[in-house]
Design brief:
There is one protein chain. By secondary structure, the protein is an all-beta fold. Helix content is 0%, strand content 25%. It contains no helices and 12 strands. It has strands at 17-21, 25-29, 38-43, 51-53, 56-58, 66-69, 76-79, 107-108, 149-150, 169-174, 182-186, 200-205. 54% of the residues are buried. Residues 1-10 and 92-104 have low confidence and may be disordered.
């Protein structure tokens, strides 16, 4: 048997491979003609960081979800984008999170932006995703939250703004065979003082 070639029990050669989608937007994945196992990983994008200084405050925006919609009504593998950084007193930093959904198709939860002090770092993306940004720096892909900045009011009162939440991570493995193309969406990072890192989708087969 040639190196890198797997032969399933029914005798058909399978060449392992993968396809990565890292640019935000909508795409189509066409499955290979033969495979035994299909593995889908989705990373939600990071949320944008909030900002406050001298009477002006603005919230970031949520990171976009990264999704793979399976054919035949089999469900959606969804990495939820991190939440927006906000400006408000008393917040602390955000963190990426993940979780499982029902029916074997995974739904990961994005991190909640809980705020922070001056130049607060965004939350990291789940499952070794991108690091959160600090200050006006963007979060790293995949899924790092953007940095936030809290300054003072005109009378010197301190206000706080959060870094964006890190994106969630979803992982799904199936032995079902699909012979039709299906849609893939890569979430865009949220806007903010520091923008969130983009999402990511990786589909591999063996």
């Amino acid at each position: 048997m040639l190196p890198g070639i797997l032969t399933p029990f029914f005798g058909t050669a399978v060449t392992p491979g993968s396809q990565t989608f890292s640019t935000p937007g909508s795409f189509t994945f066409t499955p290979p003609s033969t495979y035994n196992t299909l593995t889908i990983e989705t990373y939600g994008a990071g949320g944008g960081g909030g900002y406050y200084n001298l009477g002006y405050g603005v919230n970031g925006s949520d990171g976009g979800n990264s999704t793979v919609t399976l054919p035949d009504g089999d469900g959606v593998v969804r990495g939820i984008g991190g939440s927006a950084g906000l400006f408000s007193p008393g917040y602390t930093e955000a963190a990426g999170g993940s979780g499982s959904g029902p029916g074997g198709v995974t739904t990961a939860t994005g991190g909640t932006a809980q705020g922070g002090a001056n130049n607060r770092q965004g939350g990291a993306g789940a499952n070794s995703g991108g690091a959160g940004g600090t200050g006006n720096n963007a979060g790293s892909a995949p899924g790092g939250g953007g940095g936030g900045y809290g300054g003072k009011t005109n009378d010197g009162t301190q206000r706080y703004a959060s870094g964006g939440g890190g994106g969630g991570y979803a992982h799904f493995v199936t032995t079902s065979f699909y012979d039709t193309a299906f849609p893939v969406v890569v979430g865009a990072g949220g806007d903010g003082y520091g923008s969130g890192g983009a999402g990511l989708v990786v589909i591999s087969w063996s």
